[in-house]
Amino acid sequence: MALIEIQNLSVAYGAPSRPVLTDIDVTVEEGEFVCVLGQTGCGKSTLLKMILGAESPAGGRILIDGVEHKQPDRTRGYVPQKYSLFPDKTVLDNITFGPEVSEFNMFTRFTPRFVRRRREIRDEAMRYIHRIGLHERDARKYPYQLSGGMQQRVAIAQALATHPRILLMDEAFSALDPGTRKDMQRLIRQLWRDSGVTVLFVTHNTQEALYLGSRVIVLAKESPDAGAQVAMDLSVPEPCHEHQIPMLVHHLEHASGSARAPEIPVFATA
Amino acid sequence: MSISFQLVHAKPNQVTTIVFSWMLFAVGLGLYFYTSQKRHQDNPEDRIMPTVTQMFHGMSDASTKAAEDDDSTLPANASLRQRFFASMLWKDTLATSRRFIYSILLLIPAVLLGLHMGLFPYVGVFFLRFILFFDKIVALSLLPILFIVFGIDELSKIMLIVIGVTPTIILDTFNLTKGVPSEQVVKACTLGASDFDVAYRVVMRQIMPRVLNSIRLNLKAVMLFLFAGEMIASTDGLAYRIALLRRHMGMDVIIPYVLWVALLLFLVDLAMRVANRKLHPWFQEA
After folding, report:
1. Which domains does chain A have, with CATH numbers?
2. Taking CB atoms and an 8 Å limit, are B282 and A164 in contact across chains?
């Protein structure tokens, strides 16, 4: 069974209602790295929010492992572009927050087991801190003391700390400068390989989508007042050479401008 | 071509800043004592603008002697300390502080209600319309009703403060809660947080410094209602004393009392500001 099944999804906003997404049918298998690509305002973030369960669709449904999840929960981790960390908690507390609240409630928090388990959780969080390239002394810093890139690193560690099966990232690197962005792309790619988590990554940057994804889904609208549809669904061959990217970017950007899918010989259409 | 000097870019140096910022204090004090001295030359019995000596005597009496309407008696050889704790100033301050502290404590449920209204839609729709209406009632216009319903004792005064200030605090907390980015709540849920965790471990901790600032801004309103209650119906308290001494034109005590109240309020505000900074080192807004 596929991990994520989006069936006939359509979304409309406002009154009179304006379609944002129409008839989206996508199936994502466990372990894929799916990049959702599209121009600003084409509804790619909306699609992510639907999978997240933060908003509910006008039609169609989304199954996670065969079950409909109508609210955000532990099966799907989330890394937004902004406000991804709790500003009142230190880096360490941000990472341990997930395991603590999912294993203990307000009453069991006062048992000796919690004290023991918390030590383990902290040790694991420290391992995460090393893995994402932060120093031990950064553990006690507050988010405002970190750069944007560091904050997103912590946000990824925070999301992975509860071992979700799906990681949803909404323009997670879009506010970062190009150098930091490159590092982050390498990091998430590495973490994806190591952990086997299924990643859904929304971006408007074609280059980023091609570099990161094992699969790229392009959303585009046929006309300004129509809802966006899946214009292209490509699986990217494993070694996506850097020198190929500029040419592919050109093709894809042409595609996301109009809904017609041009033929790109390099890719095997999924 | 003229070289224009724009005042918006002016940078006063340290000395100028100090001189300028204390200037009005100096002018105010100077004018007062000049006029006071003038009036005392014309009429040594003047009670409108007491001199420093008069005010000092008035205050030392207030802080060592019991009020005229105080029935308790001290032994003749009571120490200065004992006398101070039996004095008018101390007892008035104590009475006012007690009411003040009760009122501040009653703001805690207001903060919690605002938080829950902002976070849980059912609680929000249940209370919001009513509190918006309640907020528009002029609290002082309710004072007679409160005296009739709760009597002329402590409860009606505290209720006045509660009715006057809590709607503001509730609505402010509500807005602050609404202002927490939705990403934070969604993120907490994806990490396995329960409603309780979201409310108290994510949202409340984030808005707490702003809530404290909001309470600080509303301290004036708390004092306003407290003083109105004390002046109209009370047998002790700082405002009661000020209202009582007005009848005797006791400016030598009224003026120090007013300054004493200002000092107390300033200290409370300062303590809250310092506590806010110490408790929330992550908070990045003045």
Report:
1. 1-75+164-270 (3.40.50.300), 84-163 (no CATH)
2. no
Cβ-defined contact of B183 to A71 (cutoff 8 Å) = no
Q: Pull the structure tokens for residue A137.
A: 């002394």
Strands A198-203 and A166-170: parallel
Give this prediction's pTM.
Answer: 0.86
Hunting for tokens 């799906």 — which residue is that? A166
Fold classification of B88-279 is MetI-like fold (1.10.3720)
ipTM of the complex: 0.85
CB contact under 8 A, B186 and A77: no
The whole-angstrom separation of Cα A134 and Cα B127 is: 46
Q: What is the pLDDT along chain A (270 residues), one digit of tens a residue?
A: 788 888 888 888 877 788 888 888 899 999 899 999 888 878 888 889 999 988 888 888 899 888 888 888 888 999 998 888 999 999 999 999 999 998 888 888 888 888 889 999 999 999 989 988 888 899 999 999 999 889 999 999 999 999 999 999 998 898 888 888 888 898 898 889 888 899 999 998 888 888 888 888 988 888 877 888 888 888 876 655 666 667 777 776 666 555 444 444 444 333
Largest CA distance in chain B: 84
Tell me whether B183 touches chain A (CB under 8 Å).
Answer: yes
Instruction: Confirm if A75 and A68 have CB atoms less than 8 A apart.
Output: no
